[in-house]
Design a protein that fits this description.
The structure is a single chain. With about 475 residues, the chain is of the alpha+beta class. It is about 55% helix and about 5% strand. It has 20 helices and seven strands. The strands form two sheets. Strands 1-5-2-3-4 form a five-stranded antiparallel sheet, with helices on one face. Helix 11 packs parallel to helix 12, helix 14 packs antiparallel against helix 15 and helix 16 crosses helix 17. The radius of gyration is 24 Å and the shape is globular.
Length: about 475
């Protein structure tokens, strides 16, 4: 059994790494990380069989759209299937007859070569080779990429680019942003949490907390690196979507009020709508805009898959799910009311409030899988990691920048969107998750918002909020 190989490109260059993998006929997964940028190369007997990148512009769907290979409407429908199943996009394209084997192979290889040549530009990066990773060949797609040839071409292209940059030399490139989920940083983060907590732990409790914290950090790192997938929706949402699907013709606009009650359905719609965007300034941020962008056919496929028996759902009576939903819907109602004060439309303000808890949801889902008992230490660990996780997820999902500012808000984010949601949470504090900052709320609106929230909560079977007498 071959052990893992880890290192830095500053010591063992990318060209040397490619040649070493080929000459030693290595099989497994080679991962390279440069800040938030991540490249994955799968090898089989010294040959590259799969290449992927973590940025939206690296996605095959984006490449196919920009090259004119497939129209947007077709790609949205394919992605709706891809994000709700284990089927990869190439299989779906070939099985549906949207491209030939030879044609798609050329397009996949073109994207792979682009990602590889970009990697030669990385001066500082971490790499890890995992020989135990089970490489799954992409269906009938063969890459004619050879390590030694790529190394020669990549070094030559790098030399050419370096000479061009010297002629137009300017300021040094900034360091790429990093995520605080490195295993090597877990110890420092652990002591940061203890310091913020301000309460000493007994030695035995501290050792257990440290072990749990390290495992939680590792799971967060895996979560950030995961490919985009759709989120399970609530059981009552699935039932409402099934009613829409039973009508003929299907009115996809009927999905909008259903999405307003389920943050995960709204999030799934936005993920699909922004899957082909590389400029987040052009990303959509509301369910109506998402439906308009992807089209009726893709929306129909998506809601059919999400509400079908083969896709997981959030069960009724799930306590963490109910807590998160209360927080999301209450903030959404309040944010819709306060939106104009921050020069934000009511629809967008509502959606900002509805999605502000998604980073909490991702972390709580991880907590279901590991031993990390609830208490002050765990709560502080969540608050410590939530801003960075929120930023990473928003980028991965292609959400607009104002949504990232909300999801990653640490209480001091200056954007109007973050200030709006902080005010919305303060307007219904009994539903809020985490600390509620001091915000200026309108006393005359408080009871009106509480009444409106309770109408929605009654429909959803959630615990009502207290309404103060005026």
């Amino acid at each position: 059994m071959t052990s893992r190989l880890t290192g830095r490109l500053e010591v063992f260059g990318f060209a040397d790494l490619l040649q070493w993998m080929e000459l030693n006929r290595r099989t497994g997964r080679l991962t390279l990380e440069h800040g938030r940028d991540r490249r994955v190369l799968d090898w089989r007997e010294g040959q590259i069989v799969y290449v992927s990148g973590s940025q939206p512009r690296h996605r095959l769907g984006v490449h196919l759209l920009r090259s004119g290979a497939l129209p947007a409407a077709t790609l949205y429908e394919l992605l709706a299937r891809n994000f709700t199943s284990q089927e990869n996009l190439t299989r779906l394209i070939l099985d549906a007859g949207f491209d030939t084997l030879d044609g798609l192979s050329l397009r996949v290889e073109e994207l792979a070569r682009k990602l590889l040549f970009e990697t030669f530009e990385w001066k500082e990066a971490r790499f890890e080779y995992d020989p135990e990773f089970r490489v799954q060949p992409i269906l009938r797609i063969g890459l004619s990429l050879r390590g030694q040839a790529l190394a020669f071409e990549g070094v030559k292209a790098l030399d050419d680019n370096t000479r061009r940059r010297r002629r137009g030399a300017g300021a040094a490139a900034p360091e790429p942003p990093t995520l605080p989920f490195e295993a090597s940083e877990a110890d420092d983060r652990f002591w940061d949490v203890l310091e913020r907590l301000g309460t000493p732990l007994e030695p035995e409790e501290a050792r257990a907390s440290h072990r749990q914290f390290v495992e939680f950090t590792r799971r967060l790192r895996e979560r950030v690196a995961r490919h985009v997938v759709m989120h399970p929706i609530h059981e009552d949402t699935a039932q409402l979507l099934q009613q829409i699907l039973r009508k003929s013709p299907i009115d996809v606009s009927a999905v909008i009020p259903v999405a307003a009650l389920d943050p995960y359905l709204t999030l799934d719609l936005l993920i699909l709508a922004n899957a082909l965007s590389i400029d987040r300034d052009n990303s959509v941020g509301t369910a109506p805009d998402a439906i308009h962008r992807v089209g009726a056919r893709a929306v129909t496929v998506l809601i059919d898959r999400l509400s079908g028996p083969d896709f997981a759902r959030l069960p009724e009576g799930d306590k963490p799910g109910a807590v998160l939903r209360r927080a999301a819907v209450a903030a959404a109602v309040a944010a819709g009311r306060y939106a104009e004060r921050y020069s934000i439309t009511r629809e967008r303000g509502y959606t900002l409030g509805l999605l502000h808890t998604v980073a909490y949801a991702e972390m709580l889902e991880l907590l279901r899988q590991i031993e990390f008992p609830s208490g002050p230490f765990r709560a502080m660990a969540l608050e410590t990691y939530r801003p960075a996780l929120g930023a990473a997820l928003a980028e991965s999902w292609g959400l607009p920048l104002d949504f990232e500012s909300v999801i990653s808000d640490d209480g001091a984010e200056p954007s109007a969107a973050a200030a709006l949601v902080r005010t919305a949470r303060a307007a219904v504090p009994s539903c809020a998750i985490g600390a509620v900052t001091h915000e200026s709320v309108e006393p005359m609106w408080s009871d009106e918002i509480a009444h409106e929230v309770n109408v929605v909560f009654d429909f959803l079977g959630l615990e009502a909020v207290e309404v103060k007498s005026s």
